[in-house]
Specification:
Radius of gyration: 45 Å
Structural class: alpha+beta
CATH architecture of the largest domain: Roll
Amino acid sequence: QIRIFVFGEVNKPGGYSVSSLATLLHALYVADGITTNGSLRDVRLIRNTKVFSHYDLYDLLLRGDTKGDLKLLSGDVVYVPVAGPLVSISGEVKRPAIYELKGDERVTDLLEIAGGTNPTAFLESISLDRVGPNDSRILKDLNLADTAGIAENNILLQDGDRIRVPSIYDFHENMVQLTGHVKHPGPFGFTDSMRISQLIACGEQLKGNTYKKRADLYRTYDNGEKEIIPVNLEKILEGDQASDIYLQPFDNLVVYSNDQVKRKKSVSITGAIKKPDVYPLYQGMKLTDLIFLAGNLTKQAYMVRAEIARANPGNPPNIVSVNLEDVLINKKPGADIFLKEDDHVFIRLIPDWRPVQIVTIEGEVIFPGQYAIKQKDERLSDLIKRAGGLTPSAFSKGAMFYRSSIEEDVTRRNIGKIIENSRETQMDSLGHPITSNKVDFNPSLLNRIIIDLDKILKEPDGPQDIVLSGGDYIYIPTYPSGVQVIGAVAANGTIAYVKNKKAMFYIEQAGGFTPDADKSEIRLVKPDGKVFYGRKARKKVIELGDAVVVPSRLKSKTDWSDIISSTATILGSVATTIFVIDRLK
């Protein structure tokens, strides 16, 4: 073992104990290599405080020369200085990269270091981008293809130079194109007196199902104008010399398939079918073929009668009735009729077909859970009877009824877009336009239907007894603990219920109004969702489960939409609180 040192632009400088057979390259290896700022062309070996050798790693990397990889002695120092002048070369060379100069390289030397040029290199106009005086950049074009002037153009390189070797112009003087419905599309060499038959190899280039009555020859003239020349491939293949015209350079022959040219025939099927859609019409296609392509009938399909609307140009369509049982089950001869172009097949639903619809009732009923709707006009009172009726602790005034289909209906009717288009434009204090909605629209808040369950149970089948729909959700809470006071009061919370008291009593119990309270805009939210405000809210006798809402006074112009929005949010909060408290009991 010997002790050596590696310093300078290496990743892990320091002292190392290495084998007595170690070389300079081994020292660089144990130091984890040279940094991006380090020189590859002047690695120094310092022995006895003097520079013993300089190793140009380009000799190793570009030519495999290891002469400079000397054996190390104990106490040797390997030093890597900062890289010298750097130049870049890009474009049509074998090894485009950034290279370090020793100081006397010229353009041809750099090309050699970069592995030489590609066959596609355009040596007549090599671009040199150089830093000039006064923080400017200078572009020079160098012609290294001219041996007579190579000495003038093979200039000495400087730090920061950028060399770009462009490619030759990718252009074919003698070319014609064959595209479209052919076996080998692309460019082909042009020869004098070349005809279309030669380009398509006397038909060998044509794919099956080629439309031979017409192909298009696109011809470009020297002035840039283009011409479309229709040609008849059928006549050309028959040997008609007049049709087999001579080609010119840059001609492009486009060949078409029958499918591209001829109108596509189709039929359609809708109704109680798994994949209703438009389908291609095939020769000899029957009704059963179309039903199979469309994934077969659904279980709601009415088998006794389907209809086919058949086009009758200039007159109303003919309607053909089909018995699907005869077609699909009985296999009656002649029942499976042949389809014609543009036929529309309608598979009807079984009359009064209704899938099983589920409603959910939870909370204070004897048998909470999910129930299937038994008949079309089943009502809420019927559901409560099936659920065993209300429990003794049921708070019927706070019953909540939700119907998810309301949100879907509102979205389908595009009400949100109508409200958005009715926005009012105002100006802020800086004169910038701002927009605001007069209505804070949220479709999900419309899912709740306000009901009076006591009245429904007293008058079953009455006008307020809602007919059930699939997905309905009903929740019956237990008796609440008191009256909620929310908003601009000293202490928001629930106050113990006292009979025959009004809103002010509960506000005082909550510590009274805060300084910013809007006393004239008090809201009274009933358990069933009804809202009273102003004088009505003050005069009403408070009942168990009510919520008193005191809004804050607005400093600017009253925005009624914000107040309505806040009330709606609080209403949702009250309902959710009753629901959660009940669940925690």
